[in-house]
Amino acid sequence: MSTRILSVLLVTCFLSPLFGQTKAPTTKPAPSPTPATRPRATAPTPAAAAPTDSEAVLAAFNKLLDGIRHANVNEVTAVYWNSPRLNLFNYNGTVTKGWEQMRKNRASSYPEIKNVKLDVRDVNVTMLGRDGALVTCLWTQSQDYKGTPETASGRMTLVFRKVGTAWKAIHLHSSPDTPNPANIPPSEQVPTTPPATTPSPVVTPTPIPSPTPVAPPAPA
């Protein structure tokens, strides 16, 4: 009997580890990490090139022309140097001194000016170092002043100076392209060549035939 009980215990001890053992969980291999996508390097956007000094001067000059075409006091006066030392040699022969006087002149005349047409040609910009420039041109302007049409043409020279970062006109000289000869001294007058005269054709006189002699009457 004891032998039989011992056999049962041995079998139980032998089978218990087999049926009572918990199966270890299967570990799935961790997925390989996806390599991070590096952002593509993009070419930097080129910055807009700064205008050259001559281009900046020309832009200031064009602002002045637009202000004249609009008969706009603020647009025109903003281009000039705001200084008592500003001076303008005007088309009519007068001289304007100082920014304040220049503005008063424009403010009094511009309200009477309408339908301005301004054409400029032969515009030339000459740089005078880093802070100075000269602008020359020929111009023709038509407009209505107090309801009356008028037209003028002439030459213009503007001196610009760089004040801070802005180009300002510090001097203007405007003159007619056909000055009145009566106002020009003889030493400055351009000699005129008299027009060539066409020689008159030589007329050959037609000879007058000699009269035929008349025979005297026969005596009776």
What share of the residues lie within helices? 10-25%
The ordered string of helix (H) and strand (E) elements is: HHHEEHEEEE
DSSP strand (E) fraction?
25-35%
* Structural class designation: alpha+beta
> Mind summarizing the main beta sheet?
6 strands, mixed
Specify Rg, calculated over alpha carbons. 52 Å
CA distance, first residue to last residue: 231 Å
Total helices: the number is 4
Chain-averaged pLDDT: 82
What secondary-structure arrangement, pairings included, does this model have?
Layout: H1 2-20, H2 53-70, H3 73-77, E1 87-89, E2 95-97, H4 99-109, E3 113-127, E4 132-145, E5 148-163, E6 166-176
Parallel strand pairs: 1-6
Antiparallel strand pairs: 1-2, 3-4, 4-5, 5-6
What does this structure look like?
This protein is α+β, with helices and mostly antiparallel strands. The chain contains four helices and six strands. It has helices at residues 2-20, 53-70, 73-77, 99-109, and strands spanning 87-89, 95-97, 113-127, 132-145, 148-163, 166-176. It has a six-stranded mixed beta sheet with strand order 2-1-6-5-4-3. A hairpin with a 2-residue loop joins strand 5 and strand 6. The longest helix is centred in the first third of the chain and has 19 residues, at 2-20. The chain starts with a helix and ends in a 44-residue tail after the last strand. Residues 1-22 have low confidence and may be disordered.
